[in-house]
Amino acid sequence: MFANVFTIGVWIIAYTANFIDLALLYYLYRATKDRTLLFLLLILTNMALVTAVCMVLATVGVYGRAFNMIILNSCLPYYVTVPRFVYEANGTHIHREKVLIATVVGTTAVAFNFLAWNGQAIFAFVFFWLPFVALFSPLIFLNRKGLASENMGAESKTASTLMAVGRSMALIALALGALFGLLMLTPLGRVSIFARTYFALFTIIYQLPALFYSFGEFHREKQKGQISPSFTATGLPLTAREREVALNLYEGLTYEEIAEKLFVSLSAIKKHAYNIYRKTGAKNNRQLMHMMAEAGEAPISNKEHN
Predict the structure, then answer these.
(1) pLDDT in tens, 256-277
(2) Does 201 lie in the same domain as 165?
(3) Where are the alpha helices (DSSP H) in the chain?
């Protein structure tokens, strides 16, 4: 009886912390429109979903083939959220990336269900960790370095911080997952309450990096009146670099001319332009110029000329 009460208490603490974390990240995303935050939020939501599914299945006594198939299918969204998080944090753009992700998810779904149905789920669970392992790819480190040189200032620092948060969560999940696999080989793994309690603690621990980050950003907002140094509190909801690109667009410069002027790559300018139009809701350059003029963000020279 005591063991059950203890487990329930741990789960209550786990999901209270989880809901607070999700709420803070959602608040920060709504305020900043930072898509890296959005996909970090989705990764955290997916983690909560998987641990909740594990808890429910263990509670109602679902094991074996059905347990494996349900868990593996609930893990499939990782193959979408983790790559998109990496793309947003690093400014990476792969040609037809959505087609690539859809192909990988579909292939993985077939493989997961085939292996689980044929009693080979252990191999599927190895592949389950691949998206998290990908967060530590040397190519990502190299790209992060390149982005920092292209998009200087607090904007780059924010992306680097979020990437560090994502990597910390992945490292904790990998370590706890490996530990769980080892403990399942011991007599402790045969104790019925073990899995439920372990996954409750798992839920608390893996989200700590994101929880610390979101609390820190929320506190910074209260202290300084803004979400983070990379976002200004006036005018259009743009980062410092996006605002700089928007001003050049207002002047009528092409993407190529802006890239040359700011000493950054053309792909970086295109990404900034995409974010500018997405955040402002402008459909074209004329609408963007009108919005900037109304927000008081048009270049002084143009306003004086007009």
Answers:
(1) 899 888 888 888 888 888 888 8
(2) yes
(3) 2-32, 35-60, 64-75, 78-90, 97-117, 121-128, 130-134, 138-150, 154-183, 192-206, 208-224, 240-250, 255-262, 266-280, 285-294, 300-305
